[in-house]
Automatic annotation (TrEMBL):
Signal peptide: none annotated. It is found in: Cell membrane; Membrane. HAMAP family: TatC. It is a multi-pass membrane protein. One of its GO terms (biological process) is protein transport by the Tat complex. This is Sec-independent protein translocase protein TatC. InterPro entries: TatC. Pfam families: TatC (PF00902). Its main location: membrane. GO terms for cellular component: TAT protein transport complex. The gene is tatC. The lineage of its organism: Bacteria, Bacillati, Bacillota, Clostridia, Eubacteriales. Belongs to the TatC family. The chain crosses the membrane at residues 33-51, 81-103, 115-136, 165-194, 206-223, 229-248.
Length: 269
């Protein structure tokens, strides 16, 4: 009886030719979603236990610039502990989720595609961490030290709400983490024949204007904050031009013919 049940379950997951059935794919997808959810829940609980240390880590650079913090609502300070814990858990869960996506799609990938996907995951995570570290060690300390000097008079002191400060820190971390992905995105687009280095060189003036425009939208409304975001973005854009020149692979007629052949073969099937 038990043997028949096992055979029935195996038949639901695997077809006669050894490939996985739709039910099997759905079960695998469910298991991988459960893994992601479990990592997120454990992350929230774990980061809540050390949330005071995370807040201390974020406020340390502002305290060095002689900032003082206040909370404007009774629950504001407590909510920041939950916010920081949730965001930290999301950051930890994202690489796990991306790996689960890779593991789910791996059976359908070629060996070269699988290797390239792993490299993208690894370098994408590394570049995001470098961007966050750059914001924490360089951009935010310089910005905070400069802004505190703008008080100008003895009777005006900076009393920043802890919520607005945490918002600034998290915004800068997300911005710089994403901005530092620019070289990796450029390499991918260059290998696909999309990121043409010559076009990027000719359009660098427009790109710089757009970068400063984006920086003005996503940063606090002062020119210093905009420059602290825009200048690294411009440097990364020029690095991306250099990398696109190395990895650029223009599309040829043979590539188009191969794509047409693949479409025809899929239509015949």
């Amino acid at each position: 009886m038990a043997t028949n049940v096992k055979r029935k379950k195996k038949a639901e997951v695997m077809s006669d030719d050894g490939s996985m059935t739709l039910t099997g794919h759905l079960k695998e997808l469910r298991n991988r979603l459960i893994i992601c959810a479990a990592v997120f829940v454990v992350g929230v609980i774990g980061f809540l236990a050390i949330s005071d240390k995370l807040i201390d880590l974020l406020t340390a650079m502002a305290m060095n610039a002689n900032y003082t913090f206040v909370f404007l609502a009774p629950q504001e300070k407590l909510m920041q502990y939950f916010r920081v814990s949730l965001i930290a858990a999301v950051i930890v869960t994202i690489p796990v989720a991306l790996y689960q996506v890779y593991a789910f799609a791996k059976p359908g990938l070629k060996r070269s595609e699988s290797f390239f996907f792993r490299l993208v995951l690894l370098f994408g995570l590394a570049l995001f961490c470098v961007g966050v570290l750059f914001a924490y060690k360089v951009t935010l300390p310089f910005m905070l030290n400069f802004l505190v000097t703008l008080e100008g008079t003895d009777y005006i002191t900076a009393s920043i709400s802890i919520e607005s400060y945490i918002n600034l820190c998290l915004t800068m971390f997300i911005i710089f983490g994403c901005v530092f992905e620019m070289p990796l995105v450029t390499i991918i687009l260059a290998k696909m024949g999309i990121a043409n280095p010559e076009i990027m060189k000719k359009g660098r003036g427009v790109a710089i204007v757009l970068i400063f425009l984006v920086a003005a939208i996503i940063t606090p409304p002062d020119i210093v904050s905009q420059c602290f975001v825009a200048v690294p973005m411009c440097l990364l854009y020029f690095i991306s031009i250099f990398l696109s020149g190395i990895f650029y692979k223009p599309k040829t007629d043979d590539d188009d013919e191969d794509e047409d052949d693949e479409e025809e073969s899929s239509d015949e099937e």
